[in-house]
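I am writing to request your help with a piece of structural work I have in hand. Here, with my thanks, is the record as I have it:
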Amino acid sequence: PTLVLDPKGDMTNLLLNFPDLAPADFAPWVDPGEAKREGKSIDELAAETADLWRNGLASWDLDGGDLAALRDGAGFTVFTPGSGSGVPLNIVGSLAAPDLDFEDEAETLRDEIEGFATGILGLVGLDADPLSSREHILISNLIERAWAAGEDLDLEALLSQIHRPPLRKLGVFDIDTFFPEKDRMELAMRLNTLIASPSFSSWRDGPDLDMESLLWTSDGKPRASIVYLAHLSDDERQFVVTLVLSKLITWMRSQAGSGDLRALVYMDEVFGFVPPTAAPPAKKPILTILKQARAFGVGMLLSTQNPVDLDYKAMSNAGTWCIGRLQTERDKSRILEALQSARGDTDVKSLDRLISGLGKRQFVLHNTRDKEPTVFTTRWAMSYLRGPLTREQIESLTEGDPLRDAAPARPRPSERRTEIADDESTVAPEIAAGIPVYHLDPGAPWAERVEASRTGSRYEAAIAARVDLIFDDTTADVDHRETWEAVVFPLEERVDADDALMVDFDERDFRDEAAAGAAYVLTDAPIHTKTYFSKAGSALKEWLYRNREIEVFRNKTLKLYGRVGETRDDFEDRCDAAA
């Protein structure tokens, strides 16, 4: 299985596989401009091209049977994130929690979160440093909090949480001090502008970004997934490559270790993605794969015409090098330096001579495990090398692809409707007059204690009770006051005070408004009657009267009483002094 990242559009040629080697197969793909320049018809040029390919393959003992075996043995798919010309790919529509234990794989999942946060902020023009950007830190914490709890997110939920985070602090500071609400709203609006843009909607169409389906077909055949990037801006390419490779790393680390090649990642021009000085978003996952992937049976093959613009860390982690004719002495010098760094016993002068003497389609093969480099020539390609394809050509090439047919456009946020179960309603239930009604804030510290979801919008009725207690005893000279707070959930037809859960709440734990798309679970408790709440109050008071107590020490002989909260040692010291 191969994951192909295609910034230039050349790798779409993998689908131009014609086992019959018939001129009619080549005719739609030959260059009309070339035919015109040579004074030939399209059919004539197609016939010549078919002969050229037949003879070229024959020179390597290959024929149509080999092409058919390749086509039948693997699935070739062109994915076009941000476009419907090929098979669209839902890059950002889902932030589903990965199937990994967060405690065991925290580093892996945080890398994926970092890639997403960096990428999405880059799309709105924010160059966000993971260590210093408030925006990056907030988004990363929101996603991490949801994933650690096993909860899925989507962009709509993420934007809602940016405005009203389900957490009280970031680091040691209160959330409103670290990132004031006004500024959070500005960030949410900025991201919402991106999401609301019609051109952004295509980023959420197609199958989800899932490594298993990118690497294998539904019937278990290996897949060559070509992620076409030529139509995207530089920032968008960085975003896609970062997300795809971050997902690959998460998938990779969920696999058992392997000494055999399990999957291959190929990037057909890495220029700008792993520069020697800057740190674009895609650089980190690329370096991670180069350093760690071999232990999981994942290989990475990078190509470039600009070796001088490659980071040394990337070059030094490569075990196999294929070096073709280099354009400048500077490029050659860079390669020789990197090889010397990767393997100290490299004969630089001999390698220099080999590289300088290379002919067309010749390469020096340098393997860090072999003593000497060798020179080889590339074989004839089994696909027709048409060059970069346009989006219109990709559309015709992928017509009928099962993934494309099985990937209807997802509903836009404005078109979404909340799915309502039989025991739910979109209308809030009637509450007895005079009873204040609030909605739980997802940032409430005790939300998990009542099994609330911090990312949900499904509400169930509960009672939050606050009672002021006075413990008054003239004999012991006790006049102690305290506040008792609790939540009763779920509500039954009659409130049982034994079900009350003591929590420490304040006004920040409740909101006046419900979350967007709220649904209310219907309850049998008669919360529309005032009697229900008066009886609930009476039940709580009675329970507190019977069960709530404080303890003070007493010395009968000295007729001394302890103070509320006084320790035994302190009380005994007072007794000694009095005696």
